[in-house]
Amino acid sequence: MMGGHHAASGAAAWVAVASTAPHALGWYPVTPLGVVTGALLTAGAALLPDLDHHSGTIAHSLPPVTKILARLTEAVSGGHRRGTHSLLGLAVFVALSTALGRVSTEVPVFGSVAVGAGILSVLLMGFAFKALKIAGGPARSWFLALAFSVFIALYAPENNDWLPVAVGLGVAVHIVGDLLTHQGVMILWPLRIKRPRSLAKFPVVNKLWRSSGAFSLPLIGAAGSWREWALMVPVTVYAIYGVTVDGLTALTGWSPYA
After folding, report:
1. Taking the C-alpha atoms of 92, 165, 142 and 137 in order, what is their torsion angle to the nearest 10 degrees?
2. Which residues, including other chains, have CB under 8 Å from residue 158's CB and lie 6 or more apart?
3. How much is the pLDDT for 97?
4. Quick check: pTM over 0.90?
5. N-terminal to C-terminal alpha carbon distance within the chain
6. What kind and span of H or E run contains 11?
């Protein structure tokens, strides 16, 4: 799946889970401002698994930091669409964000500031802006990432466990998105269960279980296909609508559902 679509799916997932408006599920309710900040961070988290590719777009988002992190991640995770695209990778990302989510401090006027979320947001915002083609050169990328991260740190949701929820949600929708492509993902990594040659002659099995050991449910085919666009255009519209409505509610107190 394309990077911009990963980011949009992350934001849409947060809106669906965290907003209490009629257009959302409200399973993890936060304030309208929390919907906005959480959507931004989850959009970035939905690109986090692609840090396993040292020459990919994400690796060039905040140089030189992301280039170094990408090479380290690629080495540890076994390569692209392996460790970071697995259930183990999901668990590791959630564990790391849980630890960062506990780092906060009291600041006069602003009260409790989510320092850990702010630090992580620098990286994730850099990913999102690069994938959405918002950032320009490195200087602008760093400026935007830092500015939005300060906003997230100051106005993070009040729920103590919101950061691992947002990161876990973003990483999970990324994995699902890549699972829907032909290439699939090694969801059980480091286990690599290769498809037996005897099953290669069965067309359905051949598509769902790749010879590499990756699993796939190729509903959208190749990345960037018309089927991906058909799926992601309404998802993107939903994300923009949800963030806009909750943003207006947070700023003005007005809600179309009042």
Report:
1. 80
2. 30, 31, 34
3. 95
4. yes
5. 37
6. helix 3-18
| Residue keyed to tokens 């209490």 | 20
Which residues, 6+ apart, have CB-to-CB distance to 41 below 8 Å? 14, 117, 120, 121, 124, 125, 152, 163, 166, 167, 170
State the Cα–Cα distance between residues 119 and 21, nearest whole angstrom.
29
- For residues 6 and 8, give the distance between their C-alpha atoms in angstroms, rounded to a whole number: 6
Helix (H) or strand (E) holding 107: strand 105-107
Q: How many residues can be counted in the chain?
A: 258
**Percent of the chain topping pLDDT 90:** 60
Mind listing the pLDDT tens digit for each residue in 118-167? 999 999 999 998 888 887 788 899 999 999 999 999 988 887 799 999 99
Q: Which among 224, 232, 102 has a CA at the least distance from the CA of 162?
A: 102
214 touches 184 (CB < 8 A): yes
Beta-carbon count within 10 A of 245 CB: 22
Q: How far apart are CA 111 and CA 109, in angstroms?
A: 6
